[in-house]
Amino acid sequence: MRVLETIAAFRAARAEVPGPLGLVPTMGALHEGHLSLVRRARAACATVAMSIFVNPAQFGPSEDLSRYPRPLARDLELAEATGVDLVFHPDVAEMYPPGFATAVVPVVPGGPAQRWEGEHRPGHFQGVITVVARLLGIVSPQTAYFGEKDWQQLQVVRRMVADLAIPVEIAGCPIVREPDGLALSSRNVYLSPEQRRHATALSRALRAGRARYEAGEREAEALRRAIEAVLLDTPGVRPDYVAVVDPHSLEPLTRLEGATPGARALIAARLGGVRLIDNAALSGGEPSYS
Questions:
Q1: pTM value surpassing 0.85
Q2: What is the mean pLDDT of residues 247-255?
Q3: Cα separation of 283 and 59, whole Å?
């Protein structure tokens, strides 16, 4: 495995490896969710690249950039053991050189970026798709792999790639969960033991919404309230939002009967200073989880 810290070095290494090449973009602090993306890429691609870059542009002024975990040595060990060939690990100056912020370069999101995370984290998606657009230009992958836990981010990236006609497939990969249902996240390490127990409310809430749908409920607001009730009944859990949406546009639905298959429930909630997100399909073929 080769670790490259500059764009020039990565491009030189990229020119030497066979295709197709799959990219797994990360901010490090790797967990099994990230590694599942690597395995998916490894199964389909001759070469697998991973980026490890904590992107300051997607953090708001009151968010956790300074304390975001950066266990680089462990990340590199995990990446190599799982089959990564090339790691792109630039510093901030390499990704955002002097003058970048004032140039007409940042990509401005619209469409599915407007609601939910877009409202609660102003500027977040501009930071996300700006860095993703740069990574795609640097790495030139045939496929880039993103986890479905950040469902809205996945749709925003897909829309950006389509709008800019970037020749890359964006592959969404299933959420990886702990046995008790908690979606894996680098931020889970911030949870106290008590918060960790209460954090299962997010997956329990999604199961409650799916159960109501399977019992015949089709009114989106009734489904949303059933999900929210589980969160509100759990000590220490404070919802930012609960939504039942079209899976592609992210617009809120009124009724699921006749709606686009795969109608999605989205959750963002806080446990003390830790903010977690989760989602699940309410209609469609997504498997249940324990």
A1: yes
A2: 94
A3: 32
